Amino acid sequence: MGSCPPPVVKEIYKVAIEKLILYGAEIWYDGTARCNKKLLQIQRLALLKIAKTYTTVSTEALQILTGCEPLDLLAERVHLQFKMFNKNLKVTIGSKDYSSSDFDNFNIFEFPPWDCLPFYWRACDIPLKDTKNIFTDGSKLDARVGSGVVCLDQRDNILWQCETRLNDEASVFLAEAYAIFMALQKTREDETIGIYTDSQSVLQALESPRSYSKIIVDIKKLLRHRKYVKFYWVKAHIGTYGNELADVAAKEATRKNQIEQVLGIPKSWLNYNLKYDTLSKWQKRWEFSLNFRFYMA
């Protein structure tokens, strides 16, 4: 590995060696000074190979030079997720405490494969005029999340609309899905409707037999009793009248003062915030290290 270019060595380290070292960290990591020191000693050997520098360079500086996060902080991150989802313990992220029940932790086949509901959707540039059309959309604006639904008659007159602000941790995907859920709740089972959305990811999630989100499962349950619902995908922001109205409604929902609906937090939010927390701790560690003033001078 000594003759390999540094980028190749780093790739080998990140993809293989780092994962091998952290294997089982959920169980064995205890957060003690002894454990952290041992992890950093092991990491140092790899970082010297990547940086190809003098052995006198400090471990903190090697981490900065190579862009590799401290191994003890990565182990801590893995251990925190284990505590939350396997031990049902509360974990502090930012300024709030979270438990496993706060997260959208679905990964199941809701219905047996032989009993899956057939689901069809197609692209549609121009809304159909022979049915009631319902446009749905989700939005994230200024760290707030909202869902919007607008129902139009055959002459494009607004029959009704809904605007709901969701919890700030919700994703745009969940907001788009919840808008469809609201549309189904607001209509009768025997009603013929067309539901339009600009989210292909939500339509593909509904199409899949596996459900990764509770709101997707809830929509599927409603659809089992709806024979006259058709789904259409429309391109976003190309001037489609109903879609633009739904987009405005979703943005208006984000401006509400009160959160009206709390959905399970997606794993993507957790991964992002845990990584951000790791980077913040790394930054503070570097700024308070004895080497910071020497290297930054």
UniProtKB/TrEMBL annotation:
GO terms for molecular function: nucleic acid binding; RNA-DNA hybrid ribonuclease activity. It comes from the Eukaryota. Signal peptide: none annotated. PROSITE patterns: RNASE_H_1 (PS50879). InterPro entries: RNase_H-like, RNaseH-like_sf, RNaseH_domain, RNaseH_sf. Pfam families: RNase_H. CDD domains: Rnase_HI_RT_non_LTR. This is RNase H type-1 domain-containing protein.
